[in-house]
Design brief:
Required for arbuscular mycorrhiza (AM) development during AM symbiosis with AM fungi (e.g. Glomeromycota intraradices). By secondary structure, the protein is an alpha/beta fold. The chain contains 22 helices and 39 strands. The strands form ten sheets. The protein has a seven-stranded parallel β-sheet with strand order 7-10-6-12-14-15-26, sandwiched between helices. The chain has a seven-stranded mixed β-barrel with strand order 17-18-22-21-20-19-23. A hairpin with a 4-residue loop joins strand 38 (about 770-780) and strand 39.
């Protein structure tokens, strides 16, 4: 039975019992109609059931830090709250889905809105959060980052490939038979590990080993909303087993072992491995192939991961804007408690770029990762019937390589009831199946149809033989189907092909097999799809934090879908793009750095990577950002820059942050004292203080409204030579005066942490736009850089508005 239905039945049962007791006391046996009326009156009177039972939904009751050391006492307190609301312990047990009792306190339960409001007034409850669903957001990439054994003092060799670190992955599960997860050469499971290997459909204890040391799966929140998942078709598994491939891909990117001759249908062949191939993996399946990731399930995974003992949590998921507050967003909540216990939490930035303010996972304690390109390309030659050849990019392996196909323009074969412009971009259902059947279709990207994968599905459903998709220049090679060829071209080539179609009676086209080219395109660049800042929740917190490879990444894949389709060659490696792919790159690097610096906090490791990140491509030019038009990348595109793992080993200085600093930051966000006290697990009185957010000790300074002179403070910790002298150097943002006080920092055995101040003064007499610069601290060997992001505004401008 659906938990919501069970809850309602238990409640009605308890009401019915109370009605019988009342009638027995008066020795009355009322007619059925009166009994029904009394039953309804009692139901309406009791505990806020003023709305229909159908309005019951999943809510997360967040109660902050645990008040009891014993997790069972924490769980008992949750049941007491629900028993009070329902008036029945049985109904409370039926209602509750999860009790969060390890890393923090709270629970998820099926409630009506009135019950949720009632619980919100209970002392100790920080927030009652409506249930939400979040979205899922390599043979070359690690060599491109120079994370390989050829660098004797590099991060891979220094940390022995990640030995000693446990990476937790919150995703769609794992395909344990993949070669990436063999345990040859892995050390024994650490004694500090407290996780489990949870069994389920086609997954038992034998699928865990010395590589996959733990696996859990979470579905109560998902099924409370959508009902039971039907797994009879084999497209999903009620277990940690991955049906979609996404989780297998991210897990192997972060920590997969070495695999020779890996490729996707012969493309991108080479040695595949993860960033930390000797790290252990812990799998938390919170997302499902049928779509979406339940916020209640995600918070349960955070709670377990904290208890289990992971060192790094990798989560390639999130909700699109508008963003919830930091005490209502489950990723922010779970990651806050994880970071407070020394666990680095790495999240994807989202795929809604290149538009401004689309960044997600924006809390300052989260390590938020943008996606960038690598120096590998997949050129695909297109031969036309006029003996001319143009070149796009695709993943075409040569089926019917000598065959020409009829070529049509989507607008010319629009279905009867479709808009011609929509057909021109191949929006779903716009093509005439009779006219498209057996033909290649030319489509143009539009504002309403940005995705070549969506156009590919449209052409496939219309019976087309292939797709040629004209779009803004991008290095991302999309593939939604292995069976329908798709080649992406820019608008100039698309216009040329369209002219050819219009000038020819029977236009035809042939694709040539795709080739794999290395080191023949400028990289890195910020990917077109990668979400951009500024931060829409806390504008003084720069997001994203950093960029990492997330375009055309080859990694292990779940063969479940291809096995379901009875394909002769199951897909076990696949090329995928997204900030989902960038996130595990940073997760793997963080695991390596934790092995070198085991006492460093998550903020310290994040600082080391941000302050050593690169602003240049392999030719020494400024990194560009894909978009319309392409432009020089700025901190809203890539945060501190593009990750440079080997430099992060010895950053010289770090900007560290303690949990108490995050608490003061939350106070500045306007949350009340009781909420902050519950989160912190101690009595907190928030004091009003100016510039608390901008003074959070981040490795960046962002001032979203500079109206007059402003002083910002930062503190740096020396992790280099004991006796060091650092000199400040500033690249000043346009329209702003910047001074650093003091301009020199002298470290010794007693002075390991020093504070400095940066004074900003606007030079413009008009409301300006964001301008960017950098602050460097240099000692002759280390270059410690943080981005400066400033926008000048005028009081008069807002007064007039």
């Amino acid at each position: 039975m659906n938990p919501r239905d069970s809850c309602v039945c238990m409640y009605l049962s308890s009401i019915s019992g109370r009605l019988k007791d009342t009638l027995s006391l008066t020795h009355m046996a009322p007619p059925p109609g009166i009994a029904v009326t009394l039953l309804l009156l009692l139901a309406l009177q009791s505990y806020g059931f003023l709305l229909s039972f159908a309005s019951a939904n999943v809510y997360i009751v967040y109660m902050g830090e645990r008040k009891y050391g014993n997790p069972e006492l924490v769980s008992e307190s949750h049941h007491e709250i629900l028993s009070y609301v329902f008036g029945s312990k049985e109904a409370a047990r039926e209602s509750i889905l999860y009790t969060y009792k390890h890393g923090f306190s709270g629970f998820a339960a099926v409630l009506t809105p009135s019950q949720a409001n009632h619980i919100a007034d209970v002392p100790g409850v920080v927030r009652v959060i409506p249930h939400r669903f979040l979205d899922l957001h390599t043979t070359r990439s690690w060599n491109f980052l120079q994370v390989d054994s050829h660098f004797r003092n590099g991060v891979l060799s220094r940390c022995q490939s990640g030995v000693g670190s446990i990476i937790g992955v919150m995703d769609t599960g794992i395909w344990p038979e993949s070669q990436s997860f063999r345990d040859e050469g892995m050390g024994d499971i650490p004694s500090r590990w407290r996780g489990i290997c949870q069994e389920g459909e086609r997954f038992n204890h034998s699928h865990c080993n010395r590589k996959i040391i733990g696996a859990r799966w979470y579905i109560k929140g998902y099924e409370a909303e959508f009902g039971k998942i039907d797994t009879s078709d084999g497209f999903e598994f009620l277990s940690p087993r991955d049906a979609s491939g996404h989780g297998t891909h991210t897990s192997s990117t972060a920590a997969g072992g070495f695999i020779e001759n890996a490729s996707f249908m012969g493309l991108a062949s080479g040695l595949a491995r993860g960033g930390a191939p000797s790290s252990w993996l812990a799998i938390y399946k919170v997302c499902w192939a049928t779509g979406g990731c339940s916020s209640a399930d995600i918070l349960a995974a955070f709670d377990d991961a904290i208890f289990d003992g992971v060192d790094v949590l990798s989560a390639s998921l999130g909700s699109p804007p508008p963003l919830a507050s930091y005490v209502e967003d489950v990723v922010s909540i779970g990651s806050f408690h994880a970071v407070a216990k020394g666990i680095s939490v790495v999240c994807s930035a989202g795929n809604s770029g290149p538009y401004s303010q689309t960044i997600i996972n924006s809390a300052p304690w989260i390590f938020t990762v943008a996606a960038s390109t690598i120096d590998r390309a997949f050129p695909t030659a297109i031969s036309l019937g006029n003996n001319q050849t143009v070149v796009g990019q695709g993943l075409y392996t040569g089926m019917d390589v000598n065959k020409f196909y009829p070529l049509v323009y989507g607008q010319d074969i629009a279905s009867v009831d479709a808009d011609e412009d929509s057909a021109g971009s191949c929006e779903l259902g716009t093509l005439n199946g009779t006219l498209a059947n057996g033909k290649f279709v030319l489509c143009f990207q539009s504002l309403s149809q940005r995705s070549s994968t969506a156009a590919q599905r449209t052409v496939m459903s219309a019976g087309g033989a292939g797709l040629i998709f004209a779009q803004f220049p991008s290095k991302d090679v999309s593939l939604s189907s292995d069976s329908l060829p798709c080649v992406q071209i820019d608008f100039a080539i698309g216009t040329y092909i369209l002219t050819y179609i219009g000038a020819t009676r029977n236009p035809i086209v042939k694709l040539n097999p795709t080739k794999t080219l290395l080191e023949q395109q400028i990289s890195p660049e910020v990917a077109f799809f990668s979400a951009r800042g500024p931060n829409s929740v806390s504008p003084s917190v720069l997001k994203p934090d950093i960029a990492a490879p997330g375009v055309n990444i080859l990694s292990s894949w779940s063969p479940a879908y291809s096995l379901l389709q009875h394909q002769p060659s199951p897909v076990i490696f696949k090329i995928e793009s997204g900030t989902s792919m960038a996130c595990p790159h940073i997760s793997g690097i963080v695991a390596l750095l934790k092995g070198i610096h085991p006492t460093w906090s998550p903020a310290a490791i994040k600082s080391a990577l941000i302050t050593t990140a690169s602003l240049e491509d392999q030719y020494g030019q400024s990194i560009e950002a894909e978009g319309a038009p392409q432009k020089k990348a700025d901190p809203f595109d890539y945060g501190g820059g593009h990750v440079n793992p080997n430099k992060a080993i010895a950053p010289g200085l770090i900007y560290d942050i303690e949990t108490s600093d995050y608490i003061r930051f939350l106070c500045s966000m306007g949350y009340n004292n009781s909420a902050i006290s519950a989160i912190a697990g101690a009595s907190i009185t928030c004091h009003k203080s100016t510039n608390v957010q901008v003074n959070l000790n981040l490795p960046s300074i962002t001032i979203h409204e500079l109206k007059e002179r402003m002083t910002v403070s930062r503190t740096v910790t020396n992790v280099g030579p004991v006796n060091s002298i650092y000199i400040a150097r500033v690249q000043t943002p346009a329209g702003v005066s910047v001074k650093v006080k003091p301009s020199a920092l002298l470290f010794n055995s007693t002075a390991k942490r020093l504070e400095f101040k940066v004074v900003f003064r606007p030079l413009l007499k008009v409301a300006g736009r964001f301008s960017f610069g950098n602050l460097y601290w240099e000692d002759g060997f280390h270059v410690v850089r943080i981005p400066l992001t400033v926008r000048t505004v005028l009081d008069d401008f807002y007064a007039e508005a």
